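Reopening: 3-phosphoshikimate 1-carboxyvinyltransferase still failing for me.
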Amino acid sequence: MPDLVIQPSVRPLFGSVPVPADKSITHRAILLAGIASGRSRIRGNTLGEDNRATLGALRALGVGVEEPTPGELLIEGKGLSGLTAPAAPIDCGNSGTTMRLLAGILAAQPFTTILVGDASLSKRPMERVAKPLRLRGARIEGRLDPRRVGEITAPLEIGPLRPPHALCGIEYDQPVASAQVKSALLLSGLYAPDATYVREPLVSRDHTERMLSALGVPIRTAGSMVELDPSGWSGEIPALDLEVPGDISAASFLLAAAQLVPESRVTVRRVGWNPTRTGIFEALRDMDGVFAMEAKGEVMAEPIGDLHASPATLRASRIGGEIAARSIDEIPILCALAARAHGVTEIYDAAELRVKESDRIAVMAEVLRAFGVRCEERRDGMLIEGRPDRPLDAAGVSSHGDHRIAMAAAVLALCADGPSRVRDAACIATSFPRFVGTLRALGATIEVDEGAP
Ligand SMILES: O=C(O)C1=C[C@@H](OP(=O)(O)O)[C@@H](O)[C@H](O)C1
Ligand SMILES: C=C(OP(=O)(O)O)C(=O)O
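Support: Ran it again with your exact input. Result attached.
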């Protein structure tokens, strides 16, 4: 597992760079292309390993996938009912989105599929998706979680749904805001003759709704309520032709680095800024962050544009509620920004972070302390005492195999008083394979130490 060795920044970060294709949109585009009718074309910058796990799953289900040029996927859709039984368990790697969204499609298949994942994914809660799918008639079983009563984890065994049975309609109130659960229900709803209604406590990312609607599936949203009513629908998803916007979650690390390194000027090109993902912008604005948005139109109902960022004198903020829900994957990098802001930042309503690729509250607290930042863990968040007036302490930290922690730590390291080390950094390829190259192109000095055991 390589380490990153990061030098404190001695010169501004400067330049205009792309980021990988939005991971959430790409998962959905790949899955829908697999059950569409005809050949889909999906273009987007550098696929991370999570998206590759979804591609691998489709191949295992009999879908033809080609990658004629880097950044271009051709997917031969099999239609809603054309998937075939996989020969072996499907490995979802580190990707929660792959496992949970796929569960929605597999719940309706006439064959059994087993979904497995890596050590981290095998600990993540799956009852949240299994329960509503069972309520609509699916067969889905997992391993009882010894740490949590009533919880299951992967491996998941899903199906078969034996004809003439079909999934039934459902009206479901999600206990937690989760786009993965909502999307699994909507995807399974494509196979149910009756309507699917889902309500969430707060609106989570709505890429599935936007994409389904753009593909002619009858779907309506009102606040945090979504309805998919297939009566009158052709039952066919047309092939997609889509250029996936850049990933706002990946862009956030660059946006943050530009806030922290004096005299920087960074542009991130063609970033998707769907309003259900822009909590990072609002949080950063509230911290007096400096950035501008240059709109460039829409792709498949997703707004995009260029982001221009420069250094800021940051002040502490309170990040919770709806903003936390709309920036859930950005909380680690917001913690890093809070470490350089004047005052005490409070993160709350973010208990979900405890069940991501790592316990992101505990692990981020460990990372902040290693850099000499005082913080206090809360059940659903953290208090962080900013230390903006002198460099952070150079540190050696572990990513705990979590890509977002590794990248947040690398950004903190730019503000340290000597070289810092981020151990176990291979995980960055989960979402941002060219992270190191991108930061180097902007002027940062980072080495990859492959020699680490
Ligand atoms: O639907 C998606 O693409 C995602 C939803 C979020 O997870 P939850 O649904 O668990 O909130 C997010 O953290 C994850 O990175 C991607
Ligand atoms: C939580 C994440 O992804 P997933 O749930 O798909 O593993 C993430 O990318 O931060």
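Residues 70 and 146 are 43 Å apart (CA to CA). If you still see a failure, please send the error message rather than a screenshot.
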